[in-house]
C-alpha cells in the first residue's frame, strides 16, 4: 500500500539528528544568550581541554573523574567539601554582614500596625491574610480598637464556592479547545486551589463583605486545607469532564445547567461540612468588643456594611514585569474567581515607579499588599530577604547572573507569596534602603512575625504592589483604560499566590498539635528549610515543572510528614 518501502533501506539508517546539525534561526534565543554568558566566564574553568562537537554531547566518566581529582587538588575546594557536604550550604554561605545591616529600624512608617500577628498555618491563603491585614487597619481606626483579626475563613469559604463555579463556567467557555490542550490542562491543574490575587479579593469583599474572626474562626480544614483541597480538586476534575461531555452532546441548555447546579451543590456540601456554615452576607451580625479605653461596645452590621470602610474597589495592582512593555495594562486568560466579576489586571510599570508609589502610600499612612518570590535569598527564621544574603559564588565558584526577565522566562521565579509593607527606611536622598514586611507565618517567623526586605531584593523579586490611585501620575492611572494584553493562564503572572506555611505537625499518631511551629519542628527533625524547599502541586501530590502549571510551594509539607513518620516509626 502506498509508495513507502515496507523494509528500510540499509543504505539509509534512521539516525538521531543532534541540535548542532539542525537548522538554526539567526535570532538570538535565550539558550544562545546563556551560551554567551558561559563563554564570558570561561576564565573560571579549570580544565582547558577543547572538545569536539561529538565529544561534547556525552558525559565521559573518565574525564569527570579526572576533573574531580584536579578540583580537589585546590585546598579551598577541599575545605568547601568538608563544610558544604556536611551542612546546609545556604547556612554556611550566609553573610553575617548582611544580617547585621538588615535591621528593624525605619524612618517612614504607617502610624499603627495591625495586631495580632496572623498565622495562615498549613494553607495557601497568604493573599487572603495579606488583604485582611491591610483591611483591618482602617476598621481598627473606625471602631477604636487596639487589636483585631478579620475572618480569613469567611473569605476562604466564598472563594472556594466562586472558584468552583468559575472553573465549571470556564469548561463550558472552552468547548472549542481539545481536551488535552494546554489551556484545559492548566484549568484542570488547579480548579479550586487556595491561591489568589488582589482582584479576586475585590470580587469577594464587594459581593460578600467581611466579618470579625470571632464570628467565623478557622476550622481544622481552614488551617490544614490540603485534604479538603484534594477532595474538591478530584471532584471538580471529574465534574469538568462530565460537564464538557454533556455540553458537547445534543443535551439541552437546561440539562447542562441542571447538571452544573448539582455539581455546585456537591461543592457547597463539602465546604460546609469542612469549614462550617458561614454567616449570611446580607443579614446583620452582632459584634461585641472593647475599644482602646477598654469600654464595652456592641454593633450590629451586615458583612457588606462592615466592609465599607475598606474602600476596596479604589485600589489597583502595579506590577513590574520587564518581559512586557511598561505603561501597559496586562491581564490573564481565565484567571479569576467570580464569573463576570472584576478581571485580574496589572498596570505594568518600571520598578522605580512602583517603589515611588509604595513610599507615597506609606507616607499617607496606608499599608501595601504586595506579591513577591519569597523563597529567593531569604532566611525565614531571621526574617531577612536580601540579594546579598547567601554568597554562592564564594562556595562554589559559580555566578548566578539571570536578569529578572530571564528568571520569569525560564520559570526560575514568579509571584509565590503575598505580604504587607508597613514601613520603609529612606536615605538622605529619599531613596529606599530597606522595607518592613508583615508576614502571616505567626510570631515564630522573623522578628515577632515581621521581615526586613532590602531594596535590592525588592527590585529583583517583588512583582506586585496594590496602591491607591492618588499616589501615581495620571499617565499611570490612564493605563487602566487600555484594552489589556492578555497573558496565557500558565504565564508566571497567572500563577496565584500559593505559598504554604507548615506551622503544625503530627505529634502523635492521630493527633495534631497546632501550637508547634514549623521552624521548631524542623530543628527537632534536624531538617532545614532549604532542603525542604521545592515545587509541589497539592492537587495531584506530585512534583511539577514550572511554568506549565499553577504552582504551590508546599513540597516541604510532604517531606516533613514523611520524615516525621519515619522517625516516629523508629521509636
From TrEMBL:
Subunit structure: Homohexamer. Binds to nucleic acids. Binds single-stranded DNA and RNA with higher affinity than double-stranded DNA.
EC number(s) from the headed UniProt entry: 3.4.22.40
Protein's UniProt name: Cysteine proteinase 1, mitochondrial
Keywords carried by this UniProt record: Hydrolase, Protease, Thiol protease
InterPro entries: Papain-like_cys_pep_sf (IPR038765), Pept_cys_AS (IPR000169), Peptidase_C1B (IPR004134)
GO biological process: homocysteine catabolic process; proteolysis; response to toxic substance
An example Gene Ontology molecular-function term: cysteine-type aminopeptidase activity
TM region(s), chain numbering: none
UniProt cross-references to PANTHER family, sorted A to Z: BLEOMYCIN HYDROLASE
Signal peptide annotation: none
Role this protein plays: The normal physiological role of the enzyme is unknown, but it is not essential for the viability of yeast cells. Has aminopeptidase activity, shortening substrate peptides sequentially by 1 amino acid. Has bleomycin hydrolase activity, which can protect the cell from the toxic effects of bleomycin. Has homocysteine-thiolactonase activity, protecting the cell against homocysteine toxicity. Acts as a repressor in the GAL4 regulatory system, but this does not require either the peptidase or nucleic acid-binding activities.
Domain of life: Eukaryota
Pfam families per UniProt: Peptidase_C1_2
Reactions catalysed, as given in the entry: Inactivates bleomycin B2 (a cytotoxic glycometallopeptide) by hydrolysis of a carboxyamide bond of beta-aminoalanine, but also shows general aminopeptidase activity. The specificity varies somewhat with source, but amino acid arylamides of Met, Leu and Ala are preferred
A GO term from the CC aspect: cytoplasm
Annotated region described as Disordered, given as residue ranges: 1-25
Amino acid at each position: 500500500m502506498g509508495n513507502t518501502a515496507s523494509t528500510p533501506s540499509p543504505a539509509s539508517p534512521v539516525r538521531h539528528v543532534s541540535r548542532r546539525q539542525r537548522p538554526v534561526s539567526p535570532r538570538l534565543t535565550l539558550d544562545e544568550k546563556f551560551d554567551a554568558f558561559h563563554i564570558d566566564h570561561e576564565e573560571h574553568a579549570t580544565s582547558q581541554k577543547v572538545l569536539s562537537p561529538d565529544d561534547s554531547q556525552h558525559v565521559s566518566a573518565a574525564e569527570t573523574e579526572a576533573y574531580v581529582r584536579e578540583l580537589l587538588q585546590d585546598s579551598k575546594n577541599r575545605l568547601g567539601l568538608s563544610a558544604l557536604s556536611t551542612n546546609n550550604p545556604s547556612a554556611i554561605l550566609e553573610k553575617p554582614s548582611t544580617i547585621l545591616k538588615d535591621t528593624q529600624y525605619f524612618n517612614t512608617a504607617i502610624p499603627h500596625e495591625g495586631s495580632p500577628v496572623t498565622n495562615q498555618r498549613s494553607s495557601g491563603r497568604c493573599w487572603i491574610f495579606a488583604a485582611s491585614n491591610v483591611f483591618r487597619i482602617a476598621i481598627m481606626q473606625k471602631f477604636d480598637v487596639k487589636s483585631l483579626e478579620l475572618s480569613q475563613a469567611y473569605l476562604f469559604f466564598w472563594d472556594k464556592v466562586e472558584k468552583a463555579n468559575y472553573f465549571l463556567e470556564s469548561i463550558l467557555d472552552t468547548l472549542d479547545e481539545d481536551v488535552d490542550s494546554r489551556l484545559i490542562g492548566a484549568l484542570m491543574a488547579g480548579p479550586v486551589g487556595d491561591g489568589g490575587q488582589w482582584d479576586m479579593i475585590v470580587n469577594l469583599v464587594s459581593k460578600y463583605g467581611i466579618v470579625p474572626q470571632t464570628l467565623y474562626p478557622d476550622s481544622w480544614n481552614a488551617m490544614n486545607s490540603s485534604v479538603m483541597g484534594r477532595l474538591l480538586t478530584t471532584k471538580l476534575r471529574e465534574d469538568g469532564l462530565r460537564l464538557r461531555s454533556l455540553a458537547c452532546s445534543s443535551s439541552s441548555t437546561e440539562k447542562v445547567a441542571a447538571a452544573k447546579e448539582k455539581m455546585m451543590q456537591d461543592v457547597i456540601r463539602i465546604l460546609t461540612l469542612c469549614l462550617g456554615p458561614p454567616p449570611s452576607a446580607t443579614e446583620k451580625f452582632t459584634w461585641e468588643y472593647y475599644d482602646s479605653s477598654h469600654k464595652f461596645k456592641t454593633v450590629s452590621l451586615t458583612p457588606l456594611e462592615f466592609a465599607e470602610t475598606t474602600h476596596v474597589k479604589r485600589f489597583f495592582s502595579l506590577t513590574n514585569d520587564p518581559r512586557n512593555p511598561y505603561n501597559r495594562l496586562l491581564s490573564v486568560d481565565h484567571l479569576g474567581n467570580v464569573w463576570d466579576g472584576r478581571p485580574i489586571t496589572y498596570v505594568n510599570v518600571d520598578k522605580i515607579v512602583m517603589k515611588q508609589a509604595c513610599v507615597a502610600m506609606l507616607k499617607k499612612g496606608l499599608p501595601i499588599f504586595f506579591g513577591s518570590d519569597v523563597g529567593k535569598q531569604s532566611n525565614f527564621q531571621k526574617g531577612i530577604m536580601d540579594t546579598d544574603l547567601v554568597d554562592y559564588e564564594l562556595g562554589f565558584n559559580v555566578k548566578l547572573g539571570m536578569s529578572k526577565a530571564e528568571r520569569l522566562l525560564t520559570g526560575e521565579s514568579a509571584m509565590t507569596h503575598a505580604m504587607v509593607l508597613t514601613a520603609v527606611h529612606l536615605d538622605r536622598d529619599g531613596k529606599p534602603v530597606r522595607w518592613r514586611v508583615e508576614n502571616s507565618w505567626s510570631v515564630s517567623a522573623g522578628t515577632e512575625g515581621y521581615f526586613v526586605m532590602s531594596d535590592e531584593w525588592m527590585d529583583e523579586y517583588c512583582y506586585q504592589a496594590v496602591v491607591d490611585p492618588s499616589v501615581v501620575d495620571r499617565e499611570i492611572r490612564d493605563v487602566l483604560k487600555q484594552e489589556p494584553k492578555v497573558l496565557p493562564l500558565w504565564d508566571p503572572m497567572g500563577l496565584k499566590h500559593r505559598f504554604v506555611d507548615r506551622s503544625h505537625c503530627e505529634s502523635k499518631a492521630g493527633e495534631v498539635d497546632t501550637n508547634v511551629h514549623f521552624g521548631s519542628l524542623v530543628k527537632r527533625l534536624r531538617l532545614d528549610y532549604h532542603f525542604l524547599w521545592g515545587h509541589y502541586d497539592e492537587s495531584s501530590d506530585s512534583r511539577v515543572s514550572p511554568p506549565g502549571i499553577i504552582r504551590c510551594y508546599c513540597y516541604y509539607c510532604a517531606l516533613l510528614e514523611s520524615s516525621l513518620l519515619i522517625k516516629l516509626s523508629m521509636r
